[in-house]
Design goal:
The chain has helices at 17-25, 47-65, 91-101, 138-146, 174-178, 182-191; strands at 2-6, 10-12, 31-32, 70-80, 83-85, 105-116, 121-133, 167-171, 195-199. It is α+β, with helices and mostly antiparallel strands. The protein has one domain: Maf protein (Alpha-Beta Complex). The protein is globular. The structure holds thymidine-5'-triphosphate (TTP). Thymidine-5'-triphosphate is lined by residues 14-16, 18-19, 34, 39, 58, 74-76, 78, 108, 153-155, 157-160, 177-179. It is found in: Cytoplasm.
Length: 203
């Protein structure tokens, strides 16, 4: 019999229900402690640098309060033609974003940090996924906006929700688009020995 052991106390430094769902689907037990980081205070430079800076800030903010724990922080943005799209502030912004994304390929960047102050451990990385939207009609865009789903999502859509109909193709990690690249995060937790997978009798 093979078992999965979780050896470290894990905290998800996030308000996002999507990140919570992804981590619990991966079979991890963890606490949720959102960071107090104000995203508006961080200047935008490149998508990779920006998402990693925010992921690091979110994780460290929580790690300083809980130095014994392994903390995961993340940040997701959508980028089209080099322009970043965050969360839409209203219907007009959501409409503009969906028009921009219609019929095009864009990139979703998620920066993530895993750190533990007591173990003097810190890793930050970023994963990028290409997402191609179908060409959207006006009624499709209006219908989607009226579902209210776009409003707390980067790029004004949720691939995991009703917005699944918008997406023709993806190239890369699906969970990265939803908000946390689970394959990479789990691989790192195994490497750092926070998670161990072992058979009966193995030390
Ligand atoms: C593109 C896309 C984004 N999103 C979400 C993931 C993130 O929750 C959100 C991007 O905002 P973020 O600022 O990355 O995260 P957050 O504010 O929701 O949570 P926290 O900072 O506390 O960790 O967009 C989807 O749910 N589905 C998608 O298809």
């Amino acid at each position: 019999m093979v078992h999965k052991f979780q050896q470290g106390r894990l905290i998800l430094a996030s308000n996002s229900p999507r990140r919570r769902y992804l981590l619990s689907r991966a079979g991890l037990s963890f606490e949720v402690l959102p960071s107090g980081v104000d995203e508006a205070q961080v200047p935008y430079d490149t998508p990779a640098a920006y998402t990693q800076t925010l992921a690091r800030a979110k994780a460290l903010d929580v790690a300083e309060r809980r130095p014994d724990a392994w903390v995961i922080g993340a940040d997701t943005i959508v980028v089209i033609d080099g322009q970043p799209l965050g969360k839409p502030r209203g219907r007009t912004a959501a409409r503009e974003m969906l028009h921009q994304l219609s019929g095009q390929t864009h990139q979703v960047f998620t920066g993530y940090t895993i750190c533990c102050i007591a173990h003097n451990h810190h890793v930050t990385d970023v994963v990028c996924t290409d997402v191609t939207f179908k060409s959207l009609s006006e009624p499709e865009i209006e219908w989607y906006i009226h579902t209210d789903e776009p409003f707390d999502k980067a790029g004004a859509y949720a691939i995991q929700g009703l917005g699944t109909f918008l997406v023709q193709r993806i190239n890369g990690s699906y969970t990265n688009v939803v908000g946390l690249p689970v394959c990479e995060v789990i691989a790192h937790l195994i490497e750092a020995k926070v998670i161990r997978i072992a058979a009966d009798g193995e030390p």
